[in-house]
Amino acid sequence: MNPRGYNEAGLAAATTEFELLAALVKRTGKTFDSQVRGNSMEPAIPNGASIRVGPSSGDYRVGQVVVCVVDDGLLTHRIVYIGRSSRNRAFVLTKGDGRPLCDPPIRKDAILGVVHVFSASPGAWHDVPMLAAGDRKSTRLNSSHVSESRMPS
Q1: Which of 134, 135, 51, 55 is nearest to 95 (CA)?
Q2: How far is CA 108 from the centre of its chain?
Q3: DSSP string computed for 7-50
Q4: Distance between CA atoms of 30 and 22, rounded to whole angstroms?
Q5: End-to-end CA distance of the chain
Q6: Residue range 41-89, pLDDT digits in tens
Q7: Cβ atoms within 10 Å of 49's Cβ, excluding its own
């Protein structure tokens, strides 16, 4: 490491293997495959499905499924709210399609990439479905659900 906290490849010092993966993906702009474990994204993405994650331009949209570095692991959930005010524009709220509640706010810089396709069986890749109009109501947030005081500063 050099004095600025970067190694010879120009990657910031990472404290976990997932942070190192995030740094590599962001630096190289390459896609990678991973596997979903758990049913939080069902029925859109089934437990055990392979996902293909691509880098993002940082221009996120409600409805996109993203992979985030959270604690010592990766989280694959759908963006349901994007902060707009000066206090919370660095954050998004995500939620598993099969979960009733949102996750705690996630910094945009913790997003590793966007899930573009998934495969529940070898070789059969499918686009990640957007929520149906009726389903979207259950995850759409309005100002009564999120107050700026709840978003990290």
Answers
A1: 135
A2: 9
A3: -TTSPBP-SSHHHHHHHHHHHH---EEEE--SSTTTTTS-TT-E
A4: 11
A5: 30
A6: 999 999 999 999 998 878 899 999 999 988 878 899 999 999 999 999 9
A7: 22
